[in-house]
Design brief:
The complex is a heterodimer of chains A (234) and B (321).
Chain A: E1 2-11, E2 14-24, E3 29-33, H1 40-47, E4 53-60, E5 63-64, E6 78-81, H2 93-100, H3 110-120, H4 122-126, H5 137-149, E7 155-159, H6 167-182, E8 186-191, H7 194-200, E9 203-208, E10 211-217, H8 218-223, H9 225-232
Parallel strand pairs in A: 3-8, 3-9, 6-7, 7-8
Antiparallel strand pairs in A: 1-2, 1-4, 4-5, 9-10
Helix pairs in contact in A: 2-5, 5-6
Chain B: H1 5-18, H2 22-45, H3 54-72, H4 76-100, H5 105-125, H6 127-130, E1 148-149, E2 154-155, H7 158-180, H8 183-193, H9 195-200, H10 205-231, H11 236-239, H12 242-255, H13 262-280, H14 288-303, H15 307-320
Antiparallel strand pairs in B: 1-2
Helix pairs in contact in B: 1-7, 2-7, 2-10, 2-12, 2-13, 3-4, 3-5, 3-10, 4-10, 7-10, 8-10, 12-13, 12-15
The chains are: A alpha/beta (234), B mainly alpha (321).
Chain lengths: 234, 321
């Protein structure tokens, strides 16, 4: 579904990604794990066209993203839950969800998808008239995921969903991710919380200093000595 | 707009017949025209697009009408659309590069500040046509017993202009209302808080900002044209300079830019303040009125950033909750 072949990218003269190749197939959940500064967020920014790649190619269902502007990425079925949620704080929960169905293709399906999101996250229905900025971190994450689902994406991109959340909330966020998987969504998740994320995905890539170091099934990675030593802390 | 507004509009419509003097009618026309211009500015300002350059659009509207009338005999009915179109074109010329290349916040404010100064300088420099800094008066048709002309949009009776100003003001409020009810409001609200997040849900950031800027410039140019026509005199300082651009910003901050009638309250407040200072202090102490103006702006920004009406609305909401 999503394919990156030998992608390099960076900011000005600083290169953050080197020759990154990876793939997400339909129905899969794939994680990109790695420490702070490995280039995980840069990777997602490149996929969302918030930065241009300097070499290599990104393709969504065979279509190159080269000439697609940032606001058209969502039309290709790629929907992102950005790091730190980035909700629109002065809009209510329901207005945030409305923004998730902003595109011409998504607008007619607004009511139907709103019901779907409310069924998935009943809490959001209770809070629908509340300003998004006034909710707790976990609720905001729920709202951000809901907003991303409102466009009816083929692939959901999650950027550090556990970042900045209390440990008890982190657990519930990963439960949410599992729930979304069960709904049949294809998911790509970028995460530092290696132990937790490997429990909910099928495959994973380890990104270090801008390069893919390891790739394999979640079980393989979890069992590998390198991951055990550096990330799981056993 | 819904029916509830009709009684309020009707009450406003009889005002010029019940107020004691034509001076009060004059003040009412001023309030309505400025409210309209302030409302036009706030369409951008409320979403974080702070412009210090709306004097430019106002000046273009005002001067286009007077010049086309004096030199080509073109009726304001034709020259107002031309002036508005011209202002919109300038808005695109300035706005597109800014929005395309992500010039926002303070930098955008500075670009617009430069724009208003450029327009004022051009008006002053073309003094053979525009009358320079002395300003220009449209050729009057009100002589030899003629007291009004629809074609020239000139009326001896201020009350006629009151209704024109009232219609413009109501139009401004209606535009605000329509935008509030549209997806554009959500899109602009989203852009105002996070441009990248807005783009990632599919908002064309450049185009949406440009659209709101064009609407704002159009309303302001229309306001400027009507203002010049009402005064029967335009001057680069009073319709195009930095002074008028800052006056717009001050009034809107005072009234409240996030609520529909905030700019109107701002117009009432600043007019009372200006007239009060004019009558109370006059020219007795040099520049005291400007000093008080500036001081009040600082106080508003610190203690009442949402303005008079915004603060009231907050209080009411809290009292109800």
């Amino acid at each position: 579904m999503l394919e990156l072949s030998r992608v390099s990218a960076g900011y000005g003269s600083f290169q953050a990604l080197f020759d990154v190749s990876l793939e997400v197939r339909a129905g899969e959940a794939v994680a990109v794990i790695g420490p702070n500064g490995a280039g995980k967020t840069t990777l997602l920014r490149a996929i969302s066209k918030l930065i241009e790649v300097s070499a290599g190619e990104i393709r969504m269902e065979g279509r190159s993203l080269g000439d697609v502007p940032a606001h058209r990425i969502i039309d290709l079925g790629l929907s992102q839950v950005p790091e730190h949620r980035r909700l629109f704080p002065r809009l209510t929960v329901e207005e945030n969800l409305r923004m998730g169905a902003y595109t011409a293709a998504a607008r007619p399906k607004f009511a139907q998808r709103l019901e779907m999101v409310y069924a998935l996250f009943p809490r959001m229905k209770e809070r629908r008239h509340q300003m998004a900025g006034t909710m707790s971190g976990g609720e905001q994450q729920m709202c951000a995921i809901g907003r991303a689902l409102m466009s009816g994406p083929k692939l959901l991109l999650l950027d550090e969903p556990s970042a900045g959340l209390a440990p008890v909330i982190v657990q519930s966020i990963f439960d949410l991710v599992r729930k979304i998987r069960e709904e049949g969504y294809t998911v790509m998740i970028v995460e530092q919380n290696v132990r937790q994320v490997l429990k909910v995905v099928d495959r994973a890539y380890l990104l270090e200093v801008g390069r893919i170091k390891l790739a394999g099934s979640a079980a393989e990675l979890l069992a590998s000595a390198e991951i055990q030593k550096a990330y799981v802390g056993l | 707009m819904d029916r509830r507004w009709l009684p309020a509009l009707a009450a406003l419509a009889v005002l010029p017949w019940v107020v004691p003097s034509s001076y009060v009618v004059h003040l009412l026309v001023q309030v309505l025209l400025w409210s309209f211009i302030y409302t036009g500015w706030s369409l951008m300002g409320r979403f974080g697009l702070v412009s210090f350059g709306h004097g430019a659009f106002m000046g273009i509207g005002a001067y286009a009408v007077v010049l086309l009338w004096n030199f080509h005999g073109l009726s304001p009915w034709l020259s107002i659309p031309i002036g508005v179109a011209l202002a919109v074109a300038v808005a695109v010329l300035i706005g597109y590069p800014c929005f395309r290349f992500g010039i926002a916040g303070h930098y955008f404010a500075l670009v617009t500040l430069a724009l208003t100064e450029v327009v004022r300088s051009v008006i002053v420099a073309l003094r053979d046509t525009t009358g320079g800094s002395l300003g220009i008066t449209p050729n009057s048709v009100l002589k030899d017993g003629v007291t009004w002309s629809v074609q020239a949009l000139q009326f001896a009776d201020k009350r006629v202009f009151f209704y024109i100003a009232l219609a413009a003001w109501a139009f401004g409020i209606w535009v605000w209302h329509r935008i509030d009810k549209s997806m554009m409001r959500y899109a602009m609200e989203a852009i105002g808080s996070d441009e990248q997040a807005a783009a990632s849900v599919g908002v064309n950031v450049t185009r949406t900002k440009l659209a709101i800027t064009m609407i704002s410039a159009a309303l302001t140019a229309l306001g400027g044209a009507l203002f010049g026509q009402y005064q029967q005199y335009v001057n680069p300082e009073t319709v195009a300079g930095i002074g008028v651009s800052l006056q717009i910003v001050f009034a809107v901050i005072a009234g409240g830019m996030f609520v529909r009638f905030g700019p109107t309250v701002g117009a009432v407040f600043t007019l009372l303040l200006t007239e009060g200072l004019r009558v109370g202090i006059g020219n007795k102490v040099n520049a005291l009125d400007s000093t008080i103006y500036g001081l009040m702006l600082v106080l508003f920004i610190i203690y009442m950033p949402t303005g008079i009406l915004g603060k009231l609305a907050e209080k009411l909401r809290r009292a109800r909750a």
